[in-house]
Amino acid sequence: MMDIGLTALLLLLLVVVLGFWRKVNVGLLAIAGAAVLGYASGQFSGKQIIGGFSASLFMTLLGVTLFFGIIQENGCIEFVMRRMVGVFGKQIWMAPVLVFAMGFIVAAIGPGCVPAMAFAAAMAVPLAHETGYHPVMLLVIGNLGTYSGRFSPITPEGILIRSLLEEQGLSISITSLILNTLIGNLVLFLIVFAAYKGFRVKASDGIKIECEKEKMRADQVIALISVAVMILLVIFVNMDVGLASFLVSAVLILLRIGDEKKAVGSVPWNTLLLVCGVGVLMNLVISTGGIDMLANSMSSIMTSGTAAGIMGVVSAVMSWFSSAIGVVFPTLIPTVGTIVNNVGGGVQTAEMVSVIALFASVAGLSPASTGGAIIMGACGADEEFNRRYPGDKLFAQLLAWAFITIGVLAVMAFAGVFGWFG
């Protein structure tokens, strides 16, 4: 009879494959799979199965996404970013730096990766027209910026990673995670810049992106202050980031700065179902020893010198076919504690978490993933760029970048670069 831990792992794989193949939310399938596994094995009650749904994680993600839905609808962040472009964007060489920095900042202040990628894309296309830089170069660079900013303590990704580590009795410095991923993304920035011959682009008039003429509205000022208040509550009052977000959201809605219906409508419910639903099945995978089995299998082929590289490549391959935040992080981060203990030899928790986070994110440049799809959509929506860069060629280009970037990161991982900030 097959070991129940192995059965649970195979069920997780089946759920991911079915979700990818049928375009169905993996979280929904994971809950259904957990019900089948729990009752068919006779080892879990309904209460135990439901117990895998993390109410605290759900509340945190709901609070943060609700709050930043209000902020995004208000437009205060976009106003500030456009002003920054107006102030610092007078020199042609600043365009790629600005796109990377804005991607990083917008992701880091709370919304996470996907909204930040959309913002960076909206900024990159007009900059490409004005400066002469290749639009794909600026779009890829914008994505790379979000791939480090997404791991701040107040983003859905940062919250999830901290939660997964705490369940193992582990913790790392978020600063270490951001710095490690930033090293990788900056190296990729330079490679992408050189590949598109960005150093040859010259313009005498600089960047002419139009900035808003009117001043910031009073409601935008209050909304911007609310972001600072939320961050201060988390840092100095040690308030849970989800509860702090609910508190500030309630105040903004009472002040009519946020529209309740629009705010609730902006919550990415599919993402919440994905993350928390996978957690239900992962709870059974962990309880049956499936994660220990996976961790032991991986650590058996690892050494202290190869652990980071192998873990990174596995993360990237998984991310090409599934969601980083919904599948890769919840599956691989729970293996970190066991792998660090088994392999030893100086393998660091922060290093392993960093390669999972970085490789899974950068693999998203694939046109089959969200990041690549946003790039294709941004180019396709622009008449000139759509004509100059047809969809089939752009698809092949992004697919190539998905492989090249992972190859570069793998070399860095095997060289121990991502252990610098342990």
UniProtKB/TrEMBL annotation:
GO annotation, cellular component aspect: membrane
Membrane spanning residue stretches: 49-71, 92-125, 172-196, 222-255, 267-286, 307-333, 353-377, 398-421
Membrane topology per record: Multi-pass membrane protein
Annotated localization: Membrane
GO biological process: transmembrane transport
Organism: [Clostridium] citroniae WAL-19142
Top-level taxonomy: Bacteria, Bacillati, Bacillota, Clostridia, Lachnospirales
Protein name: Citrate transporter-like domain-containing protein
Pfam family, one: CitMHS
